[in-house]
Predict the structure.
Amino acid sequence: MPGNTEQIRSFIAIELPEKVKSGLARLRSELERTEHSFVKWVDPEGIHLTLKFLGNIPFKQVAEVTKAIEGAAQGISPFQLEISGLGAFPNVRQPRVLWVGVGGQVDTLLQLQRNIDSALASLGFTREERPFTAHLTLARVRQGASPRERKSLGELVMSASFEASYPIEAKAVSLMRSQLTWGGAIYTRLSVVELEA
């Protein structure tokens, strides 16, 4: 176990079922091109629906953050989401991030996210300034990519057909640890808060 003074990089998320992860893996294999070496793909096993990124927190604060999530989740029952559709931030002409959209009971998801943001603001965490957009990050474009390279990736995204929709039953919220290594990020669940039916 980490010591009490150790800082851990953490975030709050809804974890995805294996079926969704394998669907994202299939989508990645359809989109991945050897000539697009400027694209850094996220390992499908490590994709989560992130509700709030906390940055480095002292390990001793895990219990306090978990309690705040418990308070934020009160009154929210399990709800249904689904993933479908493909897009890019800021846009498909000059993509920086490739994402998969999230639909379903998004109003409930937004309420949960707002509750978490408020509960953590009372612990001193900065509130989100940008409006929350429910999405799953599939890939990031490296900074050195030229406008022409970005454009060719955007064209590929626009031509891709990702019609399948995968259901996600959101039954719990997890506090996750992210350890950055040379081989990619390693994710560990620190705590989990079940949504009450």
